[in-house]
């Protein structure tokens, strides 16, 4: 069984933007009723458009038992977010969950750097000076230099 079914961190931390061509009304599979338009080319999963984010398709209790209500039709960012990846470790940490059982801390080397800090793209602190490097396909996570950093 996937460790994702007892987590849900990525669904309750990340903003989920994707091409509007993935919407069911445009020939894709993502139900348009669970999305909001960002612009003519980009859609966002409803619930991830405010702070704190929680995808409208997420059901259950975070850290215990969760499921995606549109798993078969989920957008590409969700399909590409890998279980037990570096991004998984970071999002779990941000919502207060430990690393998955038996997993090595994939992001330990980044988190050990005293001059870097992970920030959500939206919400508190998002307007501070950010380094424009996105970590993988994690739309919600950015690095920024901490005050006093090199």
Explain what this protein looks like in three dimensions.
Residues 106-150 have low confidence and may be disordered. Strand 2 and strand 3 form a beta hairpin. The radius of gyration is 16 Å and the shape is elongated. The chain has a 3-stranded antiparallel β-sheet with strand order 1-3-2, with no helix packed on it. A 3-stranded antiparallel β-sheet has the order 6-8-7, with helices on one face. Strands 4-5 form a two-stranded antiparallel sheet. With 150 residues, the chain is an alpha+beta fold. The chain has helices at residues 76-80, 86-94, 108-111, and strands at residues 17-19, 35-39, 42-45, 58-61, 65-68, 116-120, 131-134, 141-145. It folds into 2 domains: 3-94, no CATH class; 108-145, no CATH class. The protein starts with 16 loop residues before the first strand and ends in a 5-residue tail after the last strand.
Q: What is the element layout, followed by pairings?
A:
Blueprint: E1 17-19, E2 35-39, E3 42-45, E4 58-61, E5 65-68, H1 76-80, H2 86-94, H3 108-111, E6 116-120, E7 131-134, E8 141-145
Antiparallel strand pairs: 1-3, 2-3, 4-5, 6-8, 7-8
Brief descriptors of the model:
three-stranded antiparallel beta sheet, alpha+beta, 2 domains, 150 residues, 12% helix, 23% strand, disordered C terminus
